[in-house]
From TrEMBL:
Bias type Basic residues, positions: 356-373
Name the record gives this protein: Small ribosomal subunit biogenesis GTPase RsgA
InterPro entries with a match to the protein in the record: G_CP_dom (IPR030378), P-loop_NTPase (IPR027417), Ribosome_biogen_GTPase_RsgA (IPR004881), RsgA_GTPase_dom (IPR010914)
Gene: rsgA
Source organism per UniProt: Bradymonas sediminis
Cofactor field: Zn(2+)
Function: One of several proteins that assist in the late maturation steps of the functional core of the 30S ribosomal subunit. Helps release RbfA from mature subunits. May play a role in the assembly of ribosomal proteins into the subunit. Circularly permuted GTPase that catalyzes slow GTP hydrolysis, GTPase activity is stimulated by the 30S ribosomal subunit.
Lineage: Bacteria, Deltaproteobacteria, Bradymonadales, Bradymonadaceae, Bradymonas
One Pfam family per UniProt: RsgA_GTPase
Keyword set, alphabetical order: Cytoplasm, GTP-binding, Hydrolase, Metal-binding, Nucleotide-binding, Ribosome biogenesis, RNA-binding, rRNA-binding, Zinc
KW ATP-binding (keyword) present: no
Region ranges (Disordered): 350-373
GO annotations of cellular component type: cytoplasm
Length: 373
């Protein structure tokens, strides 16, 4: 029988009375006994799947957003996301109502590049992020550093997983290079294809009961293979299998929050979050995103006479020429300037977060941990 604690519930949430709930009780005359706590396991369009206690893998309901919550959320970031603990009203019928969101312990946001920069919440209340890379050409310490910064910014801890150990002539060299940038985060080498105990068991050390984990990393490094092996079943979409049926509808409604057994201790369960957003986490290299979103402006950029042209009236400016010819609109150029500016701010903010994380690391390790036994 699954309990809330198995799904990641702990004192941090138990001690909260979400503010919205007080308001809801007040204006909608709700009794707390009409509500239950649940975790958002999936979000699609206007509706959510929520997971709560009961059964062998939790009890799942469909739910919609309550009106008060919808109108009270000032910013989209305040709306529930996968991983959130929420208060659900036990409405009669299949569709329940999400009344309030518990304060988040950790939060992954993505800066969505576009006309306006906005933060998008990808997943919340994640304890440990397994940053997966492989012992081959894909290995890139700079990328690891970027992941580590983002994991710290989210408030989670990182474990670096060097997969495909079977392919490496000198695994220790990879481990050493990863450790050089790991900044104290554990580094573990393994082969997801290795069926002996030297394989995935190594991950068990960071899969405490009730912990919420995610796997991130570039395409092809072996995330699905690792997850499938841990689950002991093919739960992930494997590449090549289409989700759409002939009518173009999704035939699989894969859950984005799964209970995952610990390979070292089968009685112990972790909670795995696997949203498409977390999968594309590598796009957090904001610089790359900007270049992609504004590839037309960036292409002109390289044609300017001066390499460091700011496109503000410099002679020989290809951007100015494109403006004059009508090839580029003034609005688009203004958005590009704005984006560049915000990227600078973002970079400075990330650096500050990284510095702060470094400084507080020693104090963090001595603080009593919140829910370990
Ligand atoms: N040699 C070797 N191959 C592996 C290992 N782990 C995974 N692979 C192979 O690498 C390929 C990609 O693995 P996936 O698990 O699909 O990679 P992924 O990270 O989930 O990729 P995306 O779903 O695109 O994000 C598959 O052919 C796996 O069989 C390993 O430890 N050693
Ligand atoms: Zn220019």
């Amino acid at each position: 029988m699954i309990r809330l604690e198995d799904l990641g519930w702990n004192d941090f949430y138990a001690e909260q009375t979400p503010g919205e709930l007080e308001l809801v009780e007040f204006c909608e005359d709700i009794e707390p006994e009409d509500c239950f706590a649940a975790r958002i396991s999936r979000h699609d369009g206007q509706q959510y799947d929520v997971l709560t206690a009961g059964g062998t893998s939790g009890t799942q309901f469909r739910a919609r957003l309550g009106g008060v919550l919808r109108y009270r959320a000032g910013r989209p970031q305040e709306l529930p996301a996968v991983g959130d603990w929420v208060v659900v009203r036990n409405d009669v019928g299949a569709l329940k109502t999400v009344m309030a969101v518990f304060e988040r312990q950790t939060c992954f946001v993505r800066q969505a590049a576009g006309q306006v920069i906005d933060e998008q919440v990808i997943a919340t209340n994640v304890d440990t992020v397994f940053i997966v890379t492989s012992m081959n050409e894909e290995f890139e310490p700079r990328r690891l550093e970027r992941y580590l910064v983002a994991v710290r910014a989210a408030g989670a801890s990182a474990v670096i997983v060097l997969n495909k150990l079977d392919l490496a002539d000198d695994p220790d060299a990879y481990l050493a290079r990863a450790e050089a940038v790991a900044d104290g985060s554990p580094v573990v080498g393994l082969s997801a294809l290795d069926t002996s105990s030297r394989g995935l068991d190594a991950l068990g050390a960071w899969l405490n009961h009730g912990d919420t984990i995610v796997f991130v990393g570039s395409s092809g490094v072996g995330k699905s293979t690792i997850v499938n092996r841990l689950m002991g079943a093919e739960v992930q979409e494997t590449s090549g299998i289409r989700e759409d049926d002939a009518r173009g509808r999704h035939t699989t409604t894969a859950r984005q929050l799964l209970l995952i057994p610990n390979p070292e201790n089968p009685g112990s369960l972790g909670v795995l979050i696997d949203t498409p957003g977390m999968r594309e986490f590598q796009l957090w290299a904001h610089e790359d995103e900007a270049v992609e979103a504004f590839d037309d402006v960036e292409a002109l950029n390289v044609s300017c006479r001066f390499r460091d042209c700011a496109h503000n009236g410099e002679p020989g400016c290809a951007v100015q020429e494109a403006l004059d010819s009508g090839e580029l609109s003034a609005e688009r150029l203004a958005s590009w300037h704005k984006l560049r500016e915000e990227l600078e701010i973002q970079k400075a903010r990330q650096a500050a977060v990284a510095r702060r994380a470094n400084r507080s690391k020693s104090s963090r390790s001595t603080r009593p941990s919140k829910k370990r036994k």
